[in-house]
Amino acid sequence: MSVTRIGFIGTGIMGGHMARRLVEAGFAVSAWNRSREKAEALAPFGVSVATAAAEAARDADVVVSMLSSGPVCDEVLFGTNAAADAMPRGSTLVVMSSIPVDTARKQGALAAQRGIRYVDAPVSGGEKGADEGTLALMAGGEADTIEALKPVFAPLGRVTHVGPVGGGSLAKLANQLIVASNICAVAEALLLAERGGADPARVHEALLGGFADSAVFRQHGRRMIEADFVPGGPAKYQVKDTGTALALAASLGLSLPVATEVDRIFRSLVDNGGGDLDHSAAIVELRRINFR
């Protein structure tokens, strides 16, 4: 598979950085976003701004989706004026959005009907990882397709083939449960240290490199202490992912008590109007009421 032209659909907090990095790696990128100004901000980097998703997909060797949810992906990619209908036969659709496993599998079948290869490859690493090209990419699909896509994935981060279509979305759900639980645990631990009379910044420093250390602890813990909440993933997206994971667990006959409590914590904030807060800011807000 020779890839020179990429259609990029969804240039939000992470997608914008990813599209820019692909242009900087030498690909011709046509981008579309529902809020056009976000796509237009990429024009100085050499990104061509499309007026519709289908326009971005037309003539592309690979189309990358970084839309916000499964329903949005379904509508933009396969609904009215579907982007997938504009893709050439033999091209590849890579959905990097966080979507339900069943959604990925259904989309894979719809893509196959159009003669399009399909990979679900959600990412983890946040805006920082997208900006620096250090994302973790979890790819589900045919091994030879994912191998051929490595030049596309390389500017974005590290890719791991985790199984057939749907496997990437399943891995992302596992990732999100760990991240959401870790954010809550870090907030509680720092609250305990602060209320007990210790300097939370010094406690944070002391725990670096130990078993409590993690990317969440390093990045989000520091932001909690400093109340430095740059734009990031909103809390409502955590609820979307924890809810999806719990629904899948229920269908498999699994009980996930930690995930259930974490889902309740985030959902309580969303239900009280805090869904658009950065998820670390949201948990700091909940810290003030001891999660009650």
Q: Helices, strands, pairings?
A:
Elements: E1 5-9, H1 15-24, E2 28-32, H2 36-40, E3 48-49, H3 53-57, E4 62-65, H4 70-78, H5 83-86, E5 92-95, H6 101-113, E6 117-120, E7 123-124, H7 126-132, E8 135-140, H8 143-148, H9 150-153, E9 157-163, H10 167-196, H11 200-207, H12 215-226, H13 235-251, H14 257-274, H15 279-287
Parallel strand pairs: 1-2, 1-4, 2-3, 4-5, 5-6, 8-9
Antiparallel strand pairs: 7-8
Range of strand content: 5-15%
Mean of residue pLDDT? 91
Question: How large is the count of helical segments?
Answer: 15
Given the helix and strand composition, which structural class is it? alpha/beta
User: In what order do the strands lie side by side in the largest sheet?
Assistant: 3-2-1-4-5-6
Q: What is the number of independent domains?
A: 2
- In the CATH hierarchy, the third-tier topology of the largest domain is known as Rossmann fold
Through-space gap between termini: 54 Å
Report on this structure.
With 292 residues, this protein is an alpha/beta fold. It folds into 2 domains: 160 residues, NAD(P)-binding Rossmann-like Domain (Rossmann fold); 118 residues, N-(1-d-carboxylethyl)-l-norvaline Dehydrogenase, domain 2 (Orthogonal Bundle), CATH 1.10.1040.10. It is 54% helix and 13% strand. It is built from 15 helices and 9 strands. Strands 3-2-1-4-5-6 form a 6-stranded parallel β-sheet, with helices on both faces. The protein has a 3-stranded mixed β-sheet with strand order 7-8-9. Strand 1, helix 1 and strand 2 form a beta-alpha-beta unit. Helix 1 packs parallel to helix 7, helix 10 packs across helix 12 and helix 10 runs parallel beside helix 15. It is globular. 46% of the residues are buried. The model has no long low-confidence stretch (mean pLDDT 91).
